[in-house]
Amino acid sequence: MDEQLKENLMGALEQVIDPELGIDIVNIGLVYDVELDDDGLCTVSMTLTTMGCPLAGVLTEQVQMALSDIPEVKDTNVNLVWNPPWSKDRMSRYAKIALGIR
């Protein structure tokens, strides 16, 4: 997968807003990796801010919807991972400023 396509995929994922924090899942640092195979299967490895997050299903659906607009993506698989665990260190500078975290 080329860099431009990966950028497009990450850009689409920036449309997915975490309902609790009000910031997109990319800037919060929840997305660990995005891969697209030759058959058009996009695999998103991501985590949640807490295990057992009640929004897991909602976020998974939103990720699938966001990526469905990209022509190269035929299907999306969301792989929830817990290792490495999420921490505020994964947040972008933008997210930290928006949430008032130093």
Automatic annotation (TrEMBL):
It holds the Pfam family FeS_assembly_P. It comes from the Bacteria. Residues 6-79 form the MIP18 family-like domain. This is MIP18 family-like domain-containing protein.
